[in-house]
Write a sequence for this structure.
């Protein structure tokens, strides 16, 4: 419990536990990648050995036959626009809540935060019928709207807390320099809140990239689906062909993992501060 | 020249414009559907033309049905994942707190499952525990053939697999969150306790746990609420609710009733409202807890 006088044997034991845990976290991913390179008979005969050849045919079928890049592109468009809209709206609102409170702004703030606890299942049924009336089923816009609305409360909560820590004097001197509302946002709030904005954007991106229920319901045609939804359909159809399933799962996982490699430090610090799930 | 009250009004107007987009979006895509779902839960809506007000009949039918209570019980069974993930997460965070060489690397690694889509993790577990999958192959190769069963074919073992997946995906989150709580304790507290001659377990139970109590409470309530609303992708990919309604949870049932079975939309709305009530109650408890936390920290 204190770090000063630990015996070396304790350090070794802790590291041993860490390594065993690491294996339990890495093995499924390792297994997925390795078996994605096997043929189906090879998978059943030697599940646990490395593939005999470096065979990427499962991946290339995914690309040539199922045009999975269309779904990857859909995911990218949906996540990117959700992040943009959430961030733009969130920064403006959080600035008002943090630095320009008015009578009743606290109530509005709490009402917005409350929607964070509303499960998607509750609003999805009416939304589905609203969207079909507006002819928005099978469009990226429908999902982007849903994701933005859902991501706004946590964004506002985090950014408001962060913007409050920006000294009032800086905002005041910007006013004296002739900055209006947007001027302060552009010259003070965004530069000083960069770190929080970036962490939040990463979280929103990952959450929307991985989300399942909303795009599953709103996107029914394969060429409009996100990669996670398209692959879930593929994976359940090819239950007798595990290597093929693994290749699909790997394709959907790799972009998120790459994203994580770049931003993991910020994400983990964010959770450490109790801000996210 | 603008007078002062005039300027104040103008400033207020600008503030309101700043929050207007967020409010409009929330009203249109959260508040309106919320009102709509509550109203429609009291109709015999079939998604097409029929939409007559029938009062609380949908709710009464649900309360009388067998599958509603079964899915509710299922949710409570799956709740077992919460104490397990907190317990394991607590141990992981205590080990990370020792700050052995490489602890930052391990912390990031354990968090990895969190950034993978739940439905993908679910499919991985489904493949692992399929009849001819790797788990059964291992069991057979070490001579435990009789344990190589159809894991997803019976209720108990299927729940076991779902709970294992939930624990696996959340250990890292729990570990990092609780580590945050541990790091906020002044280390001299532990040194003082040590000087007083306490042993490791006394320090854990009487010093450390009470001091990170609020973090654990937070993570407990959060995880319970998440179990009611966030297991959908796991159920979808691992068991598909089956066999029968054996592993169907409330959030899965809403989807099932609304988007897989025809003409039960009124009932699906009633289910969604019940789900909202459960989660709101949990949130209220959480708010109570966090206001208590504020009292402590004041």
């Amino acid at each position: 419990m204190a770090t000063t006088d630990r015996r070396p044997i304790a350090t070794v034991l802790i590291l041993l536990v860490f390594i065993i845990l690491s294996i339990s976290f890495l093995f499924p991913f390792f297994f997925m990648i390795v078996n994605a390179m096997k043929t189906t008979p090879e998978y059943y005969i030697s599940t646990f050995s490395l593939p005999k050849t470096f065979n990427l045919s499962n991946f290339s079928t995914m690309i040539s036959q199922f045009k999975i890049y269309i779904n990857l592109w859909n995911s990218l468009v949906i996540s990117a626009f959700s992040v943009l809209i959430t961030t733009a709206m969130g920064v403006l609102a959080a600035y008002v809540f943090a630095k320009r409170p008015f009578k009743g702004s606290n109530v509005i703030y709490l009402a917005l935060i409350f929607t964070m606890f509303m499960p998607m299942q509750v609003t999805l049924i009416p939304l589905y019928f609203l969207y079909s009336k507006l002819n928005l089923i099978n469009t990226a816009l429908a999902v982007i709207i849903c994701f933005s609305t859902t991501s706004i409360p946590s964004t506002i909560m985090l950014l408001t807390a962060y913007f409050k820590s920006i000294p009032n004097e800086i905002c005041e001197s910007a006013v004296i320099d002739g900055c209006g509302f947007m001027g302060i946002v552009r010259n003070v709030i965004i530069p000083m809140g960069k770190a929080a904005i970036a962490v939040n954007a990463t979280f929103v991106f990952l959450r929307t990239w991985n989300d399942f229920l909303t795009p599953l319901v709103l996107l029914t045609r394969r060429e409009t689906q996100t990669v996670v939804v398209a692959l879930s359909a593929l994976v359940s159809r090819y239950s007798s062909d595990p290597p093929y399933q693994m290749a699909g799962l790997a394709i959907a996982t790799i972009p998120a993992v790459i994203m994580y490699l770049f931003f993991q430090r910020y994400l983990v610090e964010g959770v450490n501060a109790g801000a996210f799930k | 020249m603008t007078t002062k009250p005039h300027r104040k009004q103008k400033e207020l107007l600008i503030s309101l414009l700043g929050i207007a987009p967020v409010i409009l979006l929330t009203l249109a895509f959260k508040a309106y559907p919320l009102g709509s779902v509550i109203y429609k839960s009291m109709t015999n809506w079939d998604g097409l033309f029929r939409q007559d007000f029938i009062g609380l009949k949908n709710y009464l039918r649900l309360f009388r049905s067998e599958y509603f209570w079964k899915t509710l019980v299922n949710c409570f069974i799956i709740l077992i994942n919460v104490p397990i993930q907190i317990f394991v997460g607590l141990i992981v965070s205590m080990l990370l707190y020792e700050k052995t060489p490489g602890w930052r690397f391990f912390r990031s690694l354990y968090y990895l499952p969190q950034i993978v889509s739940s439905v993908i993790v679910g499919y991985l577990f489904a493949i692992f525990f399929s009849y001819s999958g790797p788990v059964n192959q291992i069991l057979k190769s070490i001579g435990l053939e009789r344990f190589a069963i159809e894991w997803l074919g019976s209720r108990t073992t299927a729940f076991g697999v779902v709970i294992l997946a939930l624990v696996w995906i959340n250990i890292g989150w729990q570990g990092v969150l609780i580590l945050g709580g541990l790091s906020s304790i002044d280390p001299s507290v532990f040194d003082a306790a040590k000087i007083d001659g306490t042993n490791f377990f006394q320090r854990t139970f009487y010093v450390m746990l009470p001091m990170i109590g609020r973090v654990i409470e937070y993570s407990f309530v959060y995880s319970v609420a998440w179990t009611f609303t966030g297991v959908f992708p796991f159920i979808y990919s691992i068991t598909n609710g089956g066999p029968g309604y054996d592993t169907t949870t409330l959030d899965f049932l809403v989807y099932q009733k609304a988007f897989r079975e025809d003409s039960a939309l009124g009932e699906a709305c009633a289910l969604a409202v019940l789900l909202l009530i459960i989660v709101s109650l949990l949130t209220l408890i959480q708010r109570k807890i966090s206001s208590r936390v504020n009292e402590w920290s004041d």
Remarks:
- The mean pLDDT of chain B is 86.
- Residues 60-297 of chain B form a domain with the MetI-like fold fold (CATH 1.10.3720.10).
- Residues 4-40 of chain B form the longest helix (37 residues).
